[in-house]
Amino acid sequence: MMQFDVKSLRVSFPDSARKRLFKPVPMIEVLHGVSFQVARGDSIGIVGESGSGKSTLARALLRLSETSGGSICFEGQELIGLSEHELRPLRRRMQIIFQDSQSALNPRLTVGSIVAEPLISNGLVKSSAQARDKAVELLELAGLSESFSKRYAHQLSGGQRQRVGIARALALNPEVIVADEIVSGLDVSVQAQLLQLLDKLRKDRGLTLLLISHDLSVVRATCEKVIVMRGGDIVENGMTNEVFEHPHQKYTQRLLRAIPLPDVDPTWIHRVQLEESAEPA
Ligand SMILES: Nc1ncnc2c1ncn2[C@@H]1O[C@H](COP(=O)(O)OP(=O)(O)OP(=O)(O)O)[C@@H](O)[C@H]1O
Ligand SMILES: [Mg+2]
């Protein structure tokens, strides 16, 4: 059985630009009936130009936004039509990490509390001491030492903030992690460290990783499979090396040509000099 079996998934948003007084807001479709499958433990890159529907697809898949048609089967269970109450036990099995970790992390909470929060709200710990210990353990898994648990998000580097996001996402021991542009804007060496961390966690824990990135070199280095999106459709879907070597679409060829140089070598992630520093990036 596939972990995800998605058929003809559609998403529409209210088109406020075309709103007329006393008329219902017209809808605009941004995901046009996409179908794909995800196997347990897959690492799948989702690429495509800005506005092609990558984040919309990910959010719809995790039922974080409304869908207007189609089917999402997760481990044999149809997600479309489930109430929020029915979704609750499924939610902890799928986690999403966003790019903008600065605003995703509560500025008033220490890093330890941010990571402990899902444990507490899901009743997975019995005392605050246990929550603290578990948070430290999760931070260490994400490559941050105990001392980070007392800091605030603004006292961290961009890469360290993303590690907090990863630690928090791991708290509920999910089966699926969606990472939406989590390395963009970071130094190449920091990107490589974060991607290696995600890949290691995926392998160690048998996680499924959906990695959204506009940077094809990131996907090429990290993901076995790739989905290429354009204008709300999936235009290519297959093994990363096959898609990148024999792109069917002119669009994919164009995206490939636009790979930021000089990181065209698919092994760049393993070659990047990992700087020895006192603190993890
Ligand atoms: N809440 C919303 N309301 C209306 N339109 C939306 C909403 N969210 C996304 N869209 C539209 O849906 C389309 C796809 O957006 P989406 O954010 O999925 O693109 P993306 O591929 O993730 O782009 P980027 O690489 O810039 O993050 C865009 O045209 C966008 O304007
Ligand atoms: Mg996006």
UniProtKB/TrEMBL annotation:
Any Pfam family: ABC_tran
GO biological process, any: transmembrane transport
Protein keywords: ATP-binding, Cell membrane, Membrane, Nucleotide-binding, Transport
InterPro entries in the cross-refs: AAA+_ATPase, ABC_transp_ATP-bind, ABC_transporter-like_ATP-bd, ABC_transporter-like_CS, P-loop_NTPase
SMART domains: AAA (SM00382)
CDD domains found in the cross-reference section: ABC_NikE_OppD_transporters
Every ABC transporter domain range: 11-256
Single GO term (MF): ATP binding
Domain of life from the UniProt record: Bacteria
Keyword Aminoacyl-tRNA synthetase: no
Protein name: Peptide/nickel transport system ATP-binding protein
Organism from which the protein derives: Pusillimonas noertemannii
